[in-house]
Specification:
mainly alpha, two-stranded antiparallel ribbon, 20 helices, 59% helix
Length: 549
Amino acid sequence: MSSVSTSGKKAIGTRAKPATKGEATADWIDGRLGLYSLAKSNLRKIFPDHWSFMLGEICLYTFIIIILTGVYLTLFFKPSMGEVIYNGSYAPLDGIKVSEAYQSTLNISFEVRGGLLIRQIHHWAAIVFVAAMFVHMMRVFFTGAFRKPREINWLFGFSLLFLGFFDGFLGYSLPDDLLSGTGIRFMEGAILGVPLVGTYLSFFIFGGEFPGTDIVPRFFTIHVLLIPGIMLGLLVAHLILVVYHKHTQWAGPGKTEKNVVGMPFMPVYMAKAGGFFFLVFGIIAAMSAIASVNPIWAYGPYRPDQVSTDAQPDWYMGFAEGLIRVMPGWEIRAWGHTLNMGIFVPLVLFPLVLFAIALYPFIENWITGDKREHHILDRPRNAPVRTAIGAAWISLYLVLLSGGGNDLIATHFHLSLNDITYFVRAGSFIVPVIVFFVTKRWCLGLQRRDKEKVLHGRETGVIKRLPHGEFVEVHAQLPQEQLYTLTAHEQMEPVELPAEVDENGVARKVGVMTKTRAKLSEGYFGEGNQIPKPTPEEHKEITSGHGHH
């Protein structure tokens, strides 16, 4: 009820008095930050409901878990390579000279209440985080969710994955145990393989000759401040663009490029997301309690003259090690210098393998020349060439990953180490090609199956005998909803080369890039690279009873 002045007029600038102190506080905050209008426009934002979209949520939740557990661990970890004599509760190492970093990690594991569990959760969350980002990125790739207007968001996501690789490597290097020290030694060898500046880079990073006394403090700063800060900024930008561009969705009745069909952010989606966060946290905690990862007390402190026999990095860096393990030890000597090709070539291939998939959206956009916005996802089978390229890239990654663990494969399966190395060398060229053609044919086969289902319906299992004695299976027509979903995808036409002569009869010059683009477009959308969709006329003729059972 508005207040009235003694003169009978309403007082200027007054309003109804809030019923509670909470409302008064909310009113005060909104008057200064304008949160009400922002919340009103975004809290009812619609999100589609599909299990594949939860992959991105797993990335977000594991990142939060990493930050929470990491803050706890920094309270007890000492990033110092100063040598001390260990006299803690782990008896086998009592009296051994170790670094302060290694000693503090042991203390976290055995003397800080809940410290070992937090360490395990932190490490497992990092492993799941990178795995979830990898799978999420490939979901985006196979469904074409990277198309306009999401190319920049694709690069943000890839940058998060790339930074996650290195932050994970730095984190597992901090305890200064024998395994992590071997990994750092591996990195130092790769840096020294850089022509001309390798030695200078190594001295700059390590603060002198390996291992020096500065590497753990430097890695600690980069691991807990620099890279997480960049990743947090990229993550916020990534989520802002997701909200700004609206969410992608699968094709279906009522779904268009201009709308989103799903549930509002508040309260439905928020409630489900909150429950899913605790589910992810619980599963990672259970994994951490059951399966030990990185037991540094079993490895012992790092010594430059020792190497553990089965030293392996976390899975996401395994393909980088595989590149170096299977590369022949070639060297080029010229002008008084030696170029170690066994290190230099893998060092060049490592970013090329990753950036090949990162730049793909721009290559596809150049081939298609498509400038439209896309908010409806492709079924992977309806983009056979793209799906085959993605599958081939994954197969190359897995082949190189097996090369990174060639010693373990040899010892566990009683195989020859040399045979495994030769297989990985040959497989790096052969396996992706085979996977490409098999995946492409698989996608085309699934397209033919979809076409058959649209035209002839689904098999019912009911056998019918015709008047002339033939036995046939009765097919039931698909519901309209399913028919729409199976035929909603768009099929693009190949780009055609311009005419050899223009309208004046003058020979037209066609550049190499134009010819290349037309050739690639033919390889994407030409005959034999996609199965034509059934037309309404074909469907009407089949379902009218002519030759259909």
